[in-house]
Amino acid sequence: MGCFVWGFVTDFFTYETTKSVVVKSWSVGIINRIVQVLIIAYFIGYVFMYEKAYQTTDTGIESSVMTKVKGFGRHYDRIMDVADYVFPPEGTNVFCIMTRLYVTENQFQGRCPDSWPFTCKMDEDCKKHYGSVLASGAITGKCLIEDNESPGFCEIEGWCPTENEALISKPMPDIRNFTIFIKNSINFPLFDVTRGNFPSTMTSDEIKKCTYHPEESPFCPIFRVGDILNYTGQTVEKIIEKGGEIGINIEWKCNLDLDLDYCVPLYSFTRLDKPFEKNAISKGYNFRYARYYKSDNGTEYRTLYKVFAIRFDVIVTGNAGKFDMVPTLINVVAALTSIGLGTVLCDIILLNFLKGADQYKAKKFEEVSQAQIEASLTPSPGSQLSLKPGIKSSLDSGMPSLSISDQPV
C-alpha cells in the first residue's frame, strides 16, 4: 500500500513538455497541409466573410409599424370602404381585411330555439347539454318542436334570433386590388442608428404612383393585396372563402462598416396558417363583433357580424454589425489554435497506421528521471550522446528526424 501511494505521489508531481520530431513522410505532410488549408479557408470564408465575426452585433432592434389600407369593394349590394372592412381601424402592425360577412340583425335578449348544434326529441335530450359552450346561449333544458316529422331544437336564453350560417354570403373579390401602405422605422440602440423603410428623398407623388415589386420597386412601401397573396403561393379565390393569416416579414441586415444607404429592408411573405390549410375544422380566420342600439320603447337590440378575413401580421426582424477589435482578436486566436488540429490528426495516423509507429512513439514520448539529468551533467571523458541505430539526426535544425514508410501496417 505504501509503494502504491508513493508511486501515485511521484507520478503526480511530474512535468510534461512538448518535443519536436520532424517526420519526413509525403502522405502525412500532405494530410497536415490539407487540414490546415481547410481550417484557414473555413475561418476566412465562413467565420470572417459570411458570419462577419470581426464585428460587434446589435440584435435588439427597436421597431415601429404603421399601416393604412385603401380600396373599395362591393358586398351585400353596397359599396364598402376602409371603415367597413378593416379591423382595427388604428393601422397597427396586425390588422384584418374582411373577405366575407354574415349579418344577423335585430337580436334582442330573450328565449328562442338554437338552430345549431343540438337537436332533440324531448327535454331530456337538451338537459344533458347544460353548460355547453357550443350553444348560442345558455341552454334552458326545453326542447322546442315545430312538427312531429322533424326533430326539434334546444331552447337557449340569450340573444335571439340566433345566428344562421345557412344563409348564402358571397365573398368580396375586389380585395385583390386593395393596397396596403406600410411605414416602418427601426433603431439599433447600440450604434444609435435609425432607418426608415423608404428613402427620405422619395416624394409624395412617387409614393402614390409606385407599387412594390421585388426587382423593379423594392423600396416602394405600397403593396397590392393580390400581389402579396401571389408571393405566398396563394390566390384570392383560394383564401377569400374562409380567410387566412399572412405574414409580411421586414428584415433588416445592416453592415455599418459600409455606407448607411446600404442599410435597407428586405421583404418576404408567408402564409402563417399553412399547416391548417387542409384541416376539416378551424380553417381560415374569422371573428365576431356586434353593434348595439335601443328602440324607442327602450328595448336593447344588436346587429351581430361574423367576419371572415385575411389577417396580416407585419413582422420586423434584423441586426446590425460594426467592426470591433475584441471579437476580431478572439476569432484570430481561435483560428490559429484550430490549425493545430492538423497535428492531432497526423499524430493519430503516425501512431496507429504507418510502419515505424513504434519508432515514432519512442522519439515522441520519452521519460527523463532526475538521475539521468544528474548523470548527463557529469559525462565520462570521451563520451557523447548518440541516437539509436537507424535514426538520423537533423543537425541543422536541432531536432531529431525520422524517416518513416508511407505504407500502412
Description:
About 3% of the residues have low confidence. This protein is elongated. It is an alpha+beta fold and 409 residues long. It is 25% helix and 33% strand. A hairpin with a 5-residue loop joins strand 16 and strand 17. It contains eleven helices and 19 strands. The strands form four sheets. Strands 2, 6, 7, 8, 9, 10, 14, 15, 16 and 17 form a ten-stranded mixed sheet that branches. Strands 3, 11, 12 and 13 form a four-stranded antiparallel sheet that branches. Strands 1-19-18 form a three-stranded mixed sheet, with helices on one face. Helix 2 runs antiparallel to helix 8 and helix 2 packs antiparallel against helix 9.
Q: Multimeric state of these chains? A: single chain
Question: DSSP strand (E) fraction?
Answer: 25-35%
Helix content: 25-40%
Form type = elongated
Number of strands: 19
What's the SSE pattern? HEHEEEEHEEEHEEEEHEHHEEEEHHHHEE
What's the number of helices?
Answer: 11
Terminal Cα span: 42 Å
Calculate Rg over CA atoms.
Answer: 39 Å
Largest sheet report: 10 strands, mixed
Which segments are poorly predicted (pLDDT under 50) over 5 or more consecutive residues? 385-398
- What is the overall pLDDT average? 84
- Based on secondary structure, the structural category is alpha+beta
